[in-house]
């Protein structure tokens, strides 16, 4: 096979959309609120996409539609060509609120989803420990999360979601409730997981710095109604992910992208204030 052909094949494999949202509208309250207006987004395999934008511009609604927790009023969202009609273990969801069960140990929390999927006991026990090791909680595997810090609880939730082996991971402000240092540690852990697990990830975040650090691509939503204002490939990373956050900050192009995103955010906030 010729090199050029191989490259074309590899390219098409890399570019294949896992999730395709086409011309999605979402209205609430019998049309009183248009949360999304004609939004089309393709999410590609092993790509980390951040949904960014001011409050109330439809980021969470779009994420919930991809999860199958909401249905579009118009338009279609599909995964690998099949229309999404409801939640599926193929699409794991991680919320801001810690979603671990306090009455189960960390290990049982991680096993829980696998149990629902019918994974045999021995396999789920081994797998739970593997994922707890991955999020560095193996030493507290048999403790109850009630006594854990926020970061630890969120790592239990992350391990539980990953243990179900979703090909798409959807995160709604996953680190929003954590303090700055823990948030930073979680972001670096996410980079490590992306390299190891090769998932397609979408994260809603208000934090521009977090979006630039984690994402290969940033979809910026504008408000009233929610639309895609900009779809930005984070070109300056040139496909690399940075295990240490400070290494990214030193890259040429970082500051320009940050300034651009802040300027768009200001524009949107001012437009919303003028419309109010
Ligand atoms: N279940 C619902 N019923 C009525 N209106 C809703 C519902 N869910 C969302 N909305 C409205 O849809 C719009 C978009 O909300 P959404 O939560 O998707 O925005 P967001 O960008 O994620 O905001 P935030 O960043 O504050 O979470 C808002 O005006 C919101 O009030």
From TrEMBL:
Pfam families: ABC_tran. GO terms for molecular function: ATP binding; ATP hydrolysis activity. SMART domains: AAA. Keywords: ATP-binding, Nucleotide-binding, Transport. SUPFAM superfamilies: P-loop containing nucleoside triphosphate hydrolases (SSF52540). Residues 19-248 form the ABC transporter domain. It comes from the Bacteria. Signal peptide: none annotated. PANTHER family: ALIPHATIC SULFONATES IMPORT ATP-BINDING PROTEIN SSUB, TAURINE IMPORT ATP-BINDING PROTEIN-RELATED. Belongs to the ABC transporter superfamily. This is NitT/TauT family transport system ATP-binding protein. It comes from Mycoplana dimorpha.
